[in-house]
Amino acid sequence: MKFLLLLSLVAFCWAQYDPHTYYGRSAFVHLFEWRWVDIAKECERYLGPNGFGGVQVSPPNENLVVESPSRPWWERYQPISYKICSRSGNEDEFKDMVNRCNNVGVRIYVDAVINHMCGVTAEAGQSSTCGSYFNPSNRDFPGVPYSGFDFNDAKCTTDSGDIESYADAAQVRNCRLSGLLDLALDTDYVRTMVADYMNHLIDIGVAGFRLDASKHMWPEDIKAILDKLNNLNTQWFDEGSRPFIFQEVIDLGGEAVSSSEYFGNGRVTEFKYGAKLGNVMRKLDGEKMAYLKNWGEGWGFMPSDRALVFVDNHDNQRGHGAGGSSILTFWDARLYKMAVGFMLAHPYGFTRVMSSYYWPRYFQDGSDINNWFGPPNDNGATKEVTINSDSTCGNGWICEHRWRQIRNMVAFRNVVSTQPFANWWDNDSNQVAFGRGNKGFIVFNNDDWDLSTTLQTGLPAGTYCDVISGDKIDGNCTGTKVYVDSNGNAQFFISSSAEDPFIAIHTESKI
Ligand code: QV4
Ligand code: CA
Questions:
Q1: Looking at ligand 1, which residue's alpha carbon is closest to its atom 39?
Q2: CA–CA distance, 439 with 70 (Å, rounded to integer)
Q3: Do strands 267-269 and 244-247 pair parallel, antiparallel, or not at all (unpaired)?
Q4: For this structure, is 33 an active site residue?
Q5: Which of 2, 217, 236, 408 pairs with 496 at a CA distance of 20 to 30 A?
């Protein structure tokens, strides 16, 4: 009996690190700025059938309407209330999305903006996505309600009231991030308002949360809020399931606040991952793929079971947040597919795939002056995600998650998820290969010359379809075939000018 008690205690303690994906699905996608009606359809027609574990959705709560610039993506990070009402849809549409996605084994993770409300310079009576009145100058947000008692103004020690130095941990938590009115999360009232919002979403059926701007919240305040959260809805989750938590903390080193302060609450975003991988694939700072042999904790990253990893995110794909010019995005498609493929094949971290929309990048003095553009829209109404006959997206949606190379690597990750990193090979330059036990194997050529060699794959003998150049359809390969002999060896040839200079095979792509 004692053992069972201990087991349940361990399960309880660990739960907030568990994404509660259906049958251990191992990757999720950020459908940035999608409407709820489109996400519901995508779960049923694509994400469920292709083994995606879940969707990170944009903040569903009421936000400030910013007219200048015209409806930027970032207006959704300026809350006005916790009513489920935004340009992605209303509460009924949100509930329908959660039901339909859960019913096909795809989880919903909500981007929770709980550190702050809107900017201090927003105009009283400026419009909001649900029409709630607010007045920033006297901290009046009747839609929650919040008042002057509920903000950190008195706690902040800087003259401006904004964060002025990231070397001072108290400032980073108690002052305004970019002028955003900072909530007093040390009061039980504010903690309760936030927890009520999150519990409303949990009862609807979401599986967890991205905690926006976690660096700007005291870890113990976050914990106090998490302790108020309900268990997940037993319509889809086991009794006693705790919400999955991943905290946005940008820690590239050198600041007063560290990611490790947040490990007790849940997973944490590892921003070093995308920054370093971008450098390696771009061969910057003397980096080369052969150095990836000890990728993960060997590169100074946080423990794998605390890490939330990604190649790019909604901030740094457009020059916000961290990572700078090394970050690979859909704009760098060939290298981007290799980086995402590497991430999905490697065992480190819980992996997130970015799914973006097009905007008219225009660089002036080194920065993209159009990086504020919101989603494809008709006079502010977000456009439908249309699907073309070749399964790509229309209406300005990029849908990286639907690119064959990325979609198939999500499946690869599911097939190999229980298997260890194995059979590493490199040419001491940018040709590398590695396997996952006896279930999968991947080979990259990022050198300027062809790769032609025989490698130990660890796989059973047989003929395998390369899932990068094609698919396995009706027992045939539409792309390259790989022949593994009875010793597990296979010959690989990858031209340095190939459209996608990498090959991936796994036991479910065997014919
Ligand atoms: C401006 C001035 C301020 C001034 C303020 C007065 O810059 O100096 O004090 O007016 O009101 C938008 C504008 C920004 C404006 C601010 C407030 O871009 O110019 O400040 O609104 O009016 C996103 C965007 C921000 C945007 C914010 C709110 O990136 O540009 O600010 O939404 O609309 C740090 C954090 C990290 C953060 C990252 C971007 O540690 O947590 O910066 N990342 C998350 C989200 C990100 C979001 C926020 C946090 C804020 O991923 O998308 O910022 O919720 O690294
Ligand atoms: Ca804060």
A1: 321
A2: 49
A3: parallel
A4: no
A5: 408
CA distance 217 to 225: 11
| Alpha-carbon distances of 7 from 138, 242, 267, rounded to whole Å | 50, 15, 21
Helix (H) or strand (E) holding 101: helix 91-103
SS (H, E, C) 114-158: CCEEEECCCCCCCCECCCCCCEHHHCEECCCCECHHHECCCCCCC
CA 271 to chain centre: 11
Of the residues 61, 62, 67, 74, which should be mutated to test ligand 1's pocket, given the most ligand atoms within 8 Å of the CB? 74
CA nearest 435: which of 406, 478, 402, 464? 464
SS3 assignment for 169-228:
HHHHHHCEECCEEEECCCCHHHHHHHHHHHHHHHHHCCCEEEECCHHHCCHHHHHHHHCC
In 356-406, DSSP assigns E strands to 363-364, 367-368, 377-378, 381-382
Contact 212, 60 (CB under 8 A): no
244-247 and 208-211 as β-strands: parallel, antiparallel, unpaired? parallel
Q: pLDDT tens digits for the chain (511 residues)? A: 676 666 555 544 456 999 999 998 999 999 999 999 999 999 999 999 999 999 999 999 999 999 999 999 999 999 999 999 999 999 999 999 999 999 999 999 999 999 999 999 998 878 999 999 999 999 999 999 999 999 999 999 999 999 999 999 999 999 999 999 999 999 999 999 999 999 999 999 999 999 999 999 999 999 999 999 999 999 999 999 999 999 999 999 999 999 999 999 999 999 999 999 999 999 999 999 999 999 999 999 999 999 999 999 999 999 998 888 999 999 999 999 999 999 999 999 999 999 999 999 999 998 999 999 999 999 999 999 999 999 999 999 999 999 999 999 999 999 999 999 999 999 999 999 999 999 999 999 999 999 999 999 999 999 999 999 999 999 999 999 999 999 999 999 999 999 999 999 999 999 9
Q: In 3D, which of 205, 203, 204, 208 has the Cα closest to residue 19? A: 208
CB 157 within 8 A of CB 179: no
Is the Cβ–Cβ distance between 394 and 388 less than 8 Å? yes
Q: Catalytic site residue 248?
A: yes
| Helix (H), strand (E) at residue 275 | helix 271-281
The answer to whether the CB of 376 is under 6 A from ligand 1 is: no
Q: Give residue for tokens 């036991």.
A: 507
CA separation for the pair 180, 295 (Å, rounded)? 37
In short, whether 126's Cβ falls inside 6 Å of ligand 1 is no
